[in-house]
Amino acid sequence: MQIKYLMDENLPPTYQIQLRRKEPDLVVWAIGDPNTPPKGTLDPDILIWCEKYDFILVTNNRSSMPVHLIDHLAQGQHIPGIFQINPSMSLGETIEELVLAALASLDDEYRDRISYLPLS
Questions:
Q1: Ranges for the DUF5615 domain (predicted)?
Q2: Which has the least CB within 10 A, 42, 73, 84, 115?
Q3: What is the longest distance spanned by two Cα atoms in the chain?
């Protein structure tokens, strides 16, 4: 299984653009793109969408996302994972981490948890 990323709507579009440029075969969608949740979708609904379509959420939401994940799991649901952006990392460092994770991860390695960048 190849990792697919859904970029949170609060992340600058540069993340999606640079990921696609660095690794053209990587599936990188952003909230508000066609076939994704529309902008303004509540976090619990985004987690349901990620579960249904097997996307890892990439976000900078450190405050409410952990609470929503706990609630999501408590309802017997799952998620491929959430990657939390590190504000002290440069855009280039973040892109490198996301590409490395996509190319070198095991199936379900990030399932049902929040992983904080950098992963190593």
A1: 4-105
A2: 42
A3: 37
C-alpha 99/C-alpha 28 separation (Å) is 11
What does the alpha-carbon distance between residue 101 and residue 19 come to, in Å, rounded to a whole number? Answer: 12
Cα separation, 36 vs 50, in Å, equals: 9
Interaxial angle between packed helices 91-104 and 13-22, expressed in degrees from 0 to 180 and rounded to the nearest 10: 50
Letter for the amino acid at 70?
I
Cβ proximity of 55 and 5 under 8 Å: yes
CATH topology of domain 4-116: Rossmann fold (3.40.50)
pTM above 0.85, yes or no: yes
Q: Which residues contact 53 (CB under 8 A, 6 or more apart)?
A: 4
Q: Which residue has the tokens 């979708």?
A: 41
Q: What is the pLDDT of residues 50-67, one digit of tens each?
A: 999 999 999 998 888 999
Structure tokens at 103: 């190319």
Cα three-residue angle 112-34-6, rounded to 5 degrees? 25
**Measured CA angle at 102 (ends 61, 20), to 5 deg:** 80
Beta partners for 28? 5
